[in-house]
Amino acid sequence: MKTYQHWINGAHVTPSSSQWLETVDPYQGAAWARIARGNAEDANLAVAAARDAMYKGPWSTMTASQRGKVLRRIGDLLSDSRNAQRLAEIESRDNGKILAEMQGQLKYIPEFWYYYAGLADKVEGTVIPVDKADMLAMTLREPVGVVAAITAWNSPLQFFALKCAPALAAGCAVVLKPSEFASASSLEFAALTQEAGLPAGVINVVTGLGQEIGTPLVEHPDVAKITFTGSDRTGAKVYEAAARGMKRVGMELGGKSPNIVFADADLDQACVGVVAGIFGAAGQMCTAGSRLLVQNSIRQKFTERLIEMARKLRLGDPLSADTEIGPISNPPQYEKVLRYIEAAKSEGARCVLGGAPATGQGLKGGLFVQPTIFADVTNQMRIAQEEVFGPVLSIIGFESEQDAIDIGNDVIYGLAAGVWTQDIGRAIRMSKALRAGLVWVNTYRAYSCMVPLGGMKQSGLGRESGIEAIHEFLETKSVMISAAAAAPANPFLQR
Ligand code: TXE
């Protein structure tokens, strides 16, 4: 069994507890590696390494252009097909995401590094035409400080890029704690960044349980900013702890995104978009289009079409090229998905596809759930309000555009939304009316390193991707310089 230590200050480091956690392959249903079970002592070590790298080491004296070049080389290393394939296989094995999707993701992840490499030396302050005589006033944009990045298990390498690329471009150093369910790819990737010339201590990866090493990281006095991806419940705890230290936070939390199909839509395209939006990654996406709002006049016809397409999805070994849906990533998540299916049935939702664990040939590991569709869902049901994070779709009918807006917005979340219509006016009206951080029209699950993504309402705080993300890791400092030739006559008169 492979053993993964922490990655601190450019070296593999044994956990101070000498304890380890097993990491399970959700397809085989067996442990394939062990990771360090970190604690506060390890957190201290990693934060000290990051602080020293940021304020004393070579990172502190490198120009922004030089930092950008390192980021570019990180992108190059990820573009190397051997590295990409190795990382894709590790992540597939660790969290069950299908290899084809991982390969696609890894083809794109370098773009994040290139984008922020280019942005690193374009961070500019301003000169203010200040209303004081003999004075120069300006703003400097400075790195916020040491960043703690806490991430979830569904897309570890993607989260690594989303958080670390803008943080490093801003000049910060990072301690990343990936999920205890899928830490291997982050550790492997962190070690690879050294080959790109990233100085030791700029990226550190520590592993373990949330309470044992996540909490000490969040509470560490030398951590200035926390960037978190995970559940809204844990996010709220982290937010509270961060508030006590007046730390900056970025939160990428859950969602219950409406995917809204109007009768005037191209129904072929819409059907593919709805299936991809909920059954891609076995529904384990924060942006999953888990509520299908479909106009009543086409509801029956569209539901039949969906069932037809979803029924054919191939479940199986995530490493096999034929597989379209892999297992649920870990046992607690598997149990959670099944609990929601039962809750939906008992609330009166009509199960029109799936609704049970998937068993049979090729599904030996046991963490498979059938693609599941519930019809006759009302927006008050738990299945319509709470994040399942699995391959479970709820269908809700609506009459008018206003109905679609009201139902679409009637959840605590506001991460993403999809709209399918051929009517341009309606597309614009809907894009404006939906309370979501990202609205897709006639597409779903389209992401770009240049387009900000983040939540409204309880889906989070701040934005990842795009130019906005680098500002999340910067602090404004104002500088006022007197050019007066002589001291003021009255020392107490404010200038
Ligand atoms: O998340 P947690 P889990 C949702 C999804 C899923 C649920 C639970 O609904 O069913 O979250 O997943 C660390 N202080 N999403 O249990 O608990 C933890 O170790 C500091 C949505 O994985 O939020 C892990 O690294 N850190 C999501 C990270 O927080 C703590 C993606 C996330 O764990 C901590 C995944 C603490 N007290 C799940 N407790 C999305 N937004 O994409 C835990 N952690």
Write a compact overview of the structure shown:
This protein is an alpha/beta fold and 495 residues long. Helix 3 runs antiparallel to helix 5, helix 3 runs antiparallel to helix 6 and helix 10 crosses helix 11.
Give, in spatial order, the strands making up the sheet with the most strands: 15-16-17-14-13-19-20
What is the CATH superfamily classification of the largest domain?
A: Aldehyde Dehydrogenase, Chain A, domain 1
CATH fold annotation of the largest domain: Aldehyde Dehydrogenase, Chain A, domain 1
Tell me the major beta sheet.
7 strands, mixed
Question: What share of residues is helical?
Answer: 25-40%
Radius of gyration: 24 Å
Give a verbal description of the structure.
- With 495 residues, the chain is α/β, with parallel strands linked by helices.
- It folds into two domains: 2-253 and 459-478, Aldehyde Dehydrogenase, Chain A, domain 1 (3-Layer(aba) Sandwich); 258-441, Aldehyde Dehydrogenase, Chain A, domain 2 (3-Layer(aba) Sandwich), CATH 3.40.309.10.
- 39% of the residues lie in helices and 21% in strands.
- It is built from 16 helices and 23 strands.
- It has helices at residues 40-55, 58-61, 64-79, 81-95, 99-119, 156-170, 184-193, 210-219, 232-244, 267-279, 296-311, 331-347, 382-385, 401-409, 424-433, 466-471, and strands at 2-4, 6-8, 11-13, 20-25, 30-36, 127-128, 135-143, 146-150, 174-177, 203-205, 223-229, 248-252, 258-261, 291-295, 350-353, 372-375, 392-398, 413-414, 416-420, 438-441, 456-457, 460-461, 474-482.
- The protein has a seven-stranded mixed sheet with strand order 15-16-17-14-13-19-20, sandwiched between helices.
- It binds ligand TXE.
